[in-house]
Write a structure and sequence with these properties.
The structure holds two protein chains of two kinds.
Chain A lengths: L1 H16 L1 H21 L7 E7 L4 H12 L3 E7 L2 H9 L5 E5 L3 H7 L6 E4 L4 H26 L25 H32 L1 H6 L5 H31 L7 H25 L3 H17 L12 H8 L2 H15 L7 H21 L5
Parallel strand pairs in A: 1-2, 1-3
Antiparallel strand pairs in A: 3-4
Helix pairs in contact in A: 1-9, 2-7, 2-9, 7-9, 7-10, 7-11, 7-13, 9-10, 10-13, 10-14, 13-14
Chain B lengths: L6 E12 L2 E12 L3 E6 L5 H8 L7 E6 L2 E2 L4 H7 E4 L11 H11 L4 H15 L14 H12 L6 E5 L7 H16 L3 E6 L2 H6 L2 E6 L2 E6 L1 H7 L5 H9 L7
Helix pairs in contact in B: 3-4, 5-6
The chains are: A alpha/beta, B alpha/beta.
């Protein structure tokens, strides 16, 4: 244990002497928490719209008006023909085309039905999907509006309508930031914990100092603890900075207990640092370690449900998320911050990260040898 | 070298194989307490491999060896307490100060705080580093670094110190000073096991072994070897033996 004291002193001295790391520890949470939630938003506010109005009637103008007043669409172009409008899409000026046929008003009144063409630029499938969904809603509402006007006084309701209303639990305003901020917090802890721990040990391999430690009577557990503890502390510190920024900038703070959050992050970090340690067993150079880390981080984060909900993923990808520690942490953070989940609500998440911690560290300790 | 001297390193047909490649082939020798033992060989001859087995960070494929009375298979952790090691690569922490490096390694080897402090100030005075003691090791010239690395390798007064090409890239004056420090350590009863490429350094050793292609080809005092090979210098002896080496760099 006395040896551990000396080793920890060394690690902390080295970390605090590295100005770049210190700066990164503050810069990372600030930049990520301030930029990402604003940049990575799903809400579409400025879908550019090109309209081809072949009818020029009161009804067609009203429909167009419904589009522009919805707040989602920005009318950028009136084209004479569909192919002109398509030109606009090709030039990337318009995301969505709405073509209103000639005789729109007439058909609607006489035949009681007509057709409107909507065409979306599907280069970004997500934008296209959302644009079409918004357009559908607008057209449906428009339709209902007309019917209500037409139906005279209350006979028995001519068309039985089931009206669906929704209320959004846990995030009533559907504020996307509420969704992304806890995720970014999880991302921060993950990045700091994993990257720094794996690179640190490999750096000692690269410059050769690890050999000097290997020929000394340091016990294996002392060495491993001396590498885990500093980054564990650092990870929790970064989380604290993150919580602070979330509160200052967005007014977001956990609806649940901070202690549950820290307990979860503490166990999660042990798992993650074990994984970093395991990486460093296999990598001989920092370049290799960086590459391995990147490989896993990218998959873990993209499959972790940070940006796209796991439920949207295909089945095979959902199975992959079961073995992804990051997805549990992101989910737990969201449950804690948004729903105020308690320790008991998160018991399965706790159980799973404990298993991860045991497996990763067990493997790392088993694989780490004081020999060459 | 008489046999009544205490034996601190003893190997018996020690062998290390990597697949089909025999890096060290049935090495047998003894090293006595307080002796300066030169372990010579061309690049790729298997010196470093052999040394790594002796310091307990590489498991032998076969054969026997005891270091300070401890078995290289089962008692590596006990061996590690009894030895000091200075590797080819400079391996102090460049981002720690001289004092911090000394305290770290003193602590790792289980010295008490008082003992560390006492030896630290002695060492700083001896090396004349009073003004540099709180500077980062990375800022020191190479020669000073090497002397410091050696001093730290023997800081805990080990029974044996292993030096892997300790004077590579160092100027002749510093090399001379470095060897003075080796003599002093040997005088204080620390056995010195040193590999080197410099044949003038081989002349300073009490006894030398010369390894060629994983096998020890010669082992005796420099004077005896020169007589045996009818050579004027260790350089000539080495060339005669290493000329037939199959393994290169």
């Amino acid at each position: 244990m006395r040896t551990l004291k000396f080793l920890l002193r060394k690690e902390f001295l080295q970390i605090f002497r590295d100005k770049l790391i210190l700066r990164m520890i503050f810069a990372l949470p600030v930049v990520q928490l301030i930029l990402l939630p604003y940049a990575a938003t799903y809400e579409m506010k400025n879908i550019t719209l090109s309209v081809v109005d072949n009818d020029h009637s009161e009804y067609s103008r009203k429909l167009i008006n419904n589009f522009t007043s919805s707040g989602y669409f920005k009318l950028v172009d009136y084209s004479k023909t569909y192919s002109d409008a398509l030109d606009q899409v090709e030039k990337d000026k318009a995301d969505l085309i709405v073509e209103i046929p000639e005789g729109f008003e007439r058909d609607l009144i006489r035949e009681d039905e007509t057709k409107v063409l909507i065409a979306a630029n599907a280069i970004s499938g997500q934008t296209a999907g959302l644009a079409v969904a918004y357009a559908n809603t607008i057209i449906r509402d428009y339709n209902i509006e007309l019917r209500i006007q037409w139906i005279q006084q209350p006979r028995l309701n001519a068309i039985p309508v089931i009206d669906i209303t929704s209320s959004n639990w846990f995030n009533p305003q559907m504020n996307y930031k509420m969704f992304i901020v806890p995720g970014v917090l999880a991302l921060l802890v993950t990045l700091v914990g994993f990257l720094m721990s794996s690179l640190n040990i490999v750096k000692e391999k690269e410059i050769g100092t690890i050999e000097q430690l290997n020929v000394s009577p340091i016990k294996k557990y002392e060495f491993i603890l001396s590498k885990l503890i500093p980054f564990w502390v650092l990870g929790l510190f970064v989380m604290t900075v993150g919580f602070f920024i979330s509160f200052i900038v967005y007014g977001i703070y956990p609806a649940g207990s901070f202690w549950v959050g820290y307990l979860f992050a503490g166990i999660y970090l042990i798992a993650l640092l074990g994984f970093g340690l395991l990486t460093s067993v296999y990598a001989d150079t920092q370049q290799q370690a960086m590459f391995i880390s990147y490989f896993f981080m990218l998959i873990f984060i993209l499959l972790g449900g940070l940006f796209s909900p796991i439920e949207n993923m295909p089945d095979w990808a959902q199975y992959l998320t079961y073995i992804n520690p990051v997805s549990y942490f992101i989910e737990a953070m969201r449950m804690l911050v948004l729903k105020g989940s308690s320790f008991w609500d998160l018991r399965y998440h706790f159980l799973i990260v404990i298993v991860f911690a045991i497996v990763f560290n067990g493997l790392a300790i088993f694989k780490y040898k004081k020999t060459v | 070298m008489t046999s009544e001297k205490e034996i601190v390193i003893k190997t018996d047909n020690l062998t290390k194989k990597f697949g089909d490649f025999i890096a060290a082939n049935e090495i047998t020798f003894e090293v006595f307490k307080g002796e300066i033992f030169g372990f010579l060989g061309a690049n790729g001859a298997g010196k470093t491999t052999a040394m790594k087995m002796l310091i307990g960070i590489s498991k032998p494929s076969s054969g026997k060896a005891t270091i300070a009375g401890f078995d290289v298979y089962k008692e590596t952790e006990k061996i590690k307490k009894s030895i000091g090691y200075m590797s080819q690569k400079f391996s102090l922490y460049e981002d720690l100060t001289i004092n911090e490096n000394i305290q770290l390694f003193g602590g790792i080897y289980g010295l008490s705080d008082d003992e560390i402090e006492k030896r630290r100030s002695e060492l700083i005075n001896k090396l004349n580093l009073q003004n540099e003691a709180d500077k980062l090791v990375g800022s020191l010239p190479l020669g000073w670094k090497q002397k410091l690395a050696f001093s730290i390798a023997i800081f805990h007064t080990p029974k044996i110190v292993f030096l892997d090409e300790p004077t590579g890239g160092v100027d002749p004056i510093t090399r001379r000073q470095f060897w003075d420090m080796i003599y002093e350590a040997s005088h204080n009863g620390i056995t010195v096991f040193v590999t080197t490429h410099y044949m003038d350094e081989a002349e300073y050793c009490d006894r030398v072994s010369i390894m060629v292609d994983g096998v020890i080809k010669a082992l005796d005092s420099p004077a005896e070897l020169k007589k045996q090979f009818k050579a004027n210098s260790m350089d000539e002896v080495f060339l005669m033996l290493a000329r037939d080496a199959k393994r290169g760099e």
